[in-house]
Design goal:
Elements (H helix, E strand, L loop, with lengths): L62 E6 L11 H10 L1 E6 L7 H9 L5 E4 L7 H7 L7 H7 L1 H9 L1 H6 L22 E6 H6 L8 H14 L30 E4 L2 E4 L4 H15 L12 H8 L6 E5 H12 L7 E3 L25 E4 L6 H9 L4 H9 L6 E4 L2 E4 L1 H4 L7 H8 L19 H10 L16 H27 L7 H10 L2 H16 L2
Parallel strand pairs: 1-2, 1-3
Antiparallel strand pairs: 3-9, 4-7, 4-8, 5-6, 10-11
Helix pairs in contact: 9-17, 11-16, 17-19
């Protein structure tokens, strides 16, 4: 039994880590063979347990575990995939409402000592890092437990050293079961535009920042779009490159030629903000973008108020489905991330690490049935578990023809008119679940949906990716202290300049203020952590 289970729970740091590590892919050019997860031992394959006896699913004894996801709100609706998991593993899961790692409620939860058996969260953002969470006695170190109870995860990591490198800390500590994206799944967002408007105006899909200016001006003047482009602040240049990629920058930490840099310090970011400020003044950017939510963006995109946005792949399917019922000519498609010049590639778009740290399942140090928690999580890495998470339930969502899964009419011709992704969200775990994601080749109703990934991936983002580094506990505490102030400062400054309440001419002064707040030390910490990661 791991000794950390017996540690007394300590009160956590109240100030939680505000630094959001960039969800970007590993900078190594060597690609992991993510598909090997489908070759792991079957769910009923024998495995040694603590007593040395063979193990088979399902477990017996009426086991129940509690599980907390990383989403806001109450306990989620119980779905058919939950029933199937319980039947196959013999473990009942009581799902609790989610509390994000950066929310004060999570701090209070830890202080209460009443912890769920399994936490699904982004442990890279824990104050002091995942090693600190283990040291403080909140979650278990999994190294010995993986050897005892998780043969399928262990085999997957042995076969995929690049993944193994990502999901442990510098000292080799495994702290969670990971969600690993497939190679295709690492890109899932980018610019979306009304192609039918472009066709009507005899305009092509914009590729450069100047072409975007021309298109948005035409949407405003000739289509009477009150908000030619709308988006939320998360798409300014932090979560994706957005329009900033055309200026060779992104609002976060990334790598240039082996050195970690902070995009807000780079000269290109001043040029980007100058352009966005001009567009806002010209009425091309949604005047309310600083305060709107996703539902408002959706409403504007489907009511002719806006003709372009930056969002995730499923938005294309959602918007086309909503608008084409009343306007069959409406056509939402993906547009490439804008470049600085025709034929060039933007430096940034949207690209996740294979392991970005999200949806990582740690086991509470207070868990009474550690083996059951490990076995339940390990099931996702079996062949049977991988098939369930990818294709759903055989005979319900797919059948096997010549050994290959073929989707049923429930998925491709749903009698209730649901999209294939809506159906599969009930019967499988396609994303955001501790597993190795497999490409499910899910049919889309609109070709533009499937074409989007190939369009959005045309960037130089791969060469700038900062992998999931893990500063030491002391470094992470120092980073938190520095970046709490800097993160708030840069977001406020960015908005003031775009909204026109401050001049971009003052940006050099703001860069100096970031240096005064300690960004140089933060870069030193990130560089050291990056070099340690490369040497793992």
């Amino acid at each position: 039994m791991n000794s950390s289970r017996s540690k007394k729970l300590h009160k956590p740091l109240i100030v939680l880590l505000a630094l959001t590590l960039l969800a970007a892919g590993c900078s190594s050019s060597k690609k992991a063979n993510y598909e090997s997860a489908s070759e792991t031992p079957a769910g009923n394959a024998p495995a040694s347990n603590e007593a040395g006896a063979a193990f088979t699913y399902p477990m017996t004894g009426g086991i129940e575990l509690t599980y907390m996801n990383e989403q806001l709100g109450g306990a989620p609706e119980r779905l058919p995939v939950d029933d199937e998991y319980e039947k196959r593993t013999g473990i009942a899961i009581k799902q609790l409402g989610g509390t994000p790692m950066t929310d004060q409620k999570f701090s209070l939860l830890l202080a209460s000592g009443e912890l769920p058996d399994i936490f699904l969260n982004t442990w890279l953002q824990y104050p002091g890092g995942p090693d600190k969470a283990v040291e403080q006695g909140y979650i278990l170190k999994l190294n010995d437990l993986i050897d005892q109870y998780a043969p399928n995860l262990k085999k997957t990591l042995q076969e995929n050293p690049d993944i193994d490198k990502m999901i442990k800390t510098d000292d080799g500590t495994y702290y969670a079961f990971p969600f690993i994206r497939s190679e295709i799944g690492r890109v899932y967002g980018g610019p979306i535009i009304r192609k039918d408007w472009l066709d009507e105006l005899n305009l092509g899909i914009p590729e450069t920042i100047e072409e975007w200016h021309t298109v948005l001006t035409a949407f405003k003047d000739k289509k009477n779009a009150a908000s030619p482009v709308t988006f939320r602040t998360m798409f300014l240049g932090e979560r994706t490159g957005g329009f900033a990629g055309a200026f060779g920058v992104m609002g976060n930490f990334y790598v240039n030629d082996g050195k970690v840099v902070y995009g807000y310090l780079e000269p290109g970011y001043k040029d980007y903000l100058n352009t966005m400020s001009r567009w806002y003044k010209e009425g091309l950017i949604d005047k309310d973008f600083a305060s709107i939510d996703g539902a408002t963006v959706d409403k504007k995109m489907t009511s002719n108020v806006s003709g372009a946005t930056i969002g995730w792949q499923y938005y294309i399917e959602k918007y086309n489905s909503a608008v084409q019922e009343s306007d069959p000519e409406a056509d939402f498609v993906a547009a490439p991330y804008p470049s600085a010049f025709k034929g060039g590639l933007p430096e940034f778009g949207q690209l996740d690490n294979a392991y970005a740290g999200t949806s990582s399942a740690a086991i509470s140090a207070t868990t009474k049935n550690v083996e059951a928690a490990m076995r339940w999580l390990d099931y996702a890495f079996t062949e049977e578990g991988s098939m369930l998470n990818t294709y759903g339930v055989e005979g319900t969502t797919y059948t096997l023809e010549d050994g290959k899964p073929v989707y049923t009419d429930l998925v491709v011709k749903n009698p209730e008119g649901l999209g294939s992704d809506q159906v599969m969200s009930k019967y499988s775990h396609g994303t955001n679940f501790p597993m190795i994601q497999q490409d499910n080749n899910l049919p889309a109703k609109y070709p533009a949906t499937t074409e989007s990934i190939g369009i959005w991936k045309q960037t130089n983002h791969e060469s700038h990716l900062l992998p999931p580094v893990t500063p030491t506990a002391e470094e992470a505490d120092e980073m938190s202290s520095i970046m709490n102030d800097i993160n708030a400062f840069v977001k406020e400054t960015e908005l003031k300049i775009i909204l026109g309440t401050d001049s971009v001419d003052n940006y050099d002064k703001y860069v100096q203020q970031m240096r005064d707040l300690g960004i140089g030390r933060a870069l030193e910490i990130q560089q050291a952590a990056y070099e340690r990661y490369l040497n793992r």
